[in-house]
Structure formats: structure tokens, C-alpha cells
Amino acid sequence: MRVHPVDLGEGVRAFFTLSSGGVSPAPWAPETGGGLNLGLNVADDEARVRENRARVSERLGAPVAFANQVHGDAVLVLGAAERAAWAATEPPGSAGDADALVTDQAGLGLGVLVADCVPVLLADPVAGVVGVVHAGRKGLAAGVVHRALDAMTARGAELSRVRAAVGPAVCGRCYEVPEAMRAEVAAAVPESWATTDAGTPGLDLPAGVLAQLAARGVEAVHVERCTRTDGELFSHRRATEAGTTTGRQAGVVTLLS
Ligand SMILES: [Zn+2]
After folding, report:
1. Is the pLDDT confidence value at 92 over 80?
2. How many helices (DSSP H) and strands (DSSP E) are in the chain?
């Protein structure tokens, strides 16, 4: 399985998955087949998704908890008790409704599912706290990135030590939105204001996330790959334009035990 690894510090393993390396067929796969669809709610067969998730967990070296993402700003902190409760379900299901997960538990993977929205991976390797964030249009404006950073500092992280990775997402040149929607989101996050290649109103979600991280003094690396135009990645927008559905890729992070 090919992945896009990111360095979030010593004792932390993190990467972004691509659309291949799994067992799902089209439309949850790239043209080359072997789709690594990790989303359970996109009409793919559940057994295939479980197999794909198992492959990602194996690669990460830890079981991966995913939240049921609801485009809000809620953060779920998985401490020892929550981890035990989640792991006791067979097979492990959703960790709960949230758009960010945070843990200080080594050996527990956290995952965020996306197919155009922005996946963010966070780690303070010194404090031993990691997090993932699902930042779509609504979550970005609602401040879910800030809420995740707050949850990390509450567990002992320091913003000056936190490293962030902003993963593949739809870019501002491709993400066309109605004028009023651009105005609404840009009112909350000015850096997200964009114009598409077609000259129409757009939103640059990765730029918005990077600005929010920078405002908190968090150092970030940006994986500049656009989901809509990159054939190795799932894109909800590209699939919708083609009249079909698609899968979900993930960003995952864990503290090595
Ligand atoms: Zn693009």
C-alpha cells in the first residue's frame, strides 16, 4: 500500500492514504482498481471497508479509531476509559459523533475520513498528545481546528511544540461555491476567499486551515495535492460531476508505544 507519509516528530507515525491499496471495486477505486475506500457510509460493502481499514491499521501499527463526522466543531478525547470502551466493540465501530479526535494514549490510532474536505493531523511529540481534524467548509468556519488545539493543550500539549500536517483536499481553484457562501465563510476565515479557474466564487479550505494554525503559532506542512484533479485520490466533487459516487481516504496518526 502506497501512502503519503508526514513527519510529525519522534515517536509519532502519521500518513495520508491514497485511493488504491485495498479491495474495493469501482466506483470506490481508482481506474487501476483495488480501491482503499475507508468510508462506511458511501454504499460500499461493509466487509470490504473493514478489510481496507485493517490494512491501514496494520500499516500504522495501531488500531485506528474513526469518528462519525457531522460537520460540527465537537472534539472527542479518547482517554484510557474511552479507548477501552471503543476497543471492546467488535468490530470496532465509530468512536462517536465528532469532527476531531484527540488522544494521549500510545498505540491508539486516530483517523479522519475525507474526499475533498481538509484532513489535519496534529502532534505534540514531547507531551505525547495527538489529534486529527475533519475541516470541511462548515467545520472550518465553526473553528473545529481551534477546538482540537484547545483539547490538546488541555491534555498537556504546547502550541509551540505542536506539529501539523494539512493533507490533500479540493483546492481553491477547483472548489466553486455560490457567492453568498463564499462571503459567509470568508467572513469567519478571510484566507479562505478564492476565485476558481473558471473565474467564479470559490473557497480555499486548505488556505483557511493553514491560516488558523498559523494564528495559533502552530508549524504546519501542507501536502499540496488537489483531490479533484489528482487521480490517486477520492474526490466527492469529481464523482458528483461524473454522476457517480466515490470512496473516502484518510489521514491517520498514532503515538508509538
Ligand atoms: Zn484543484
Report:
1. no
2. 7, 15
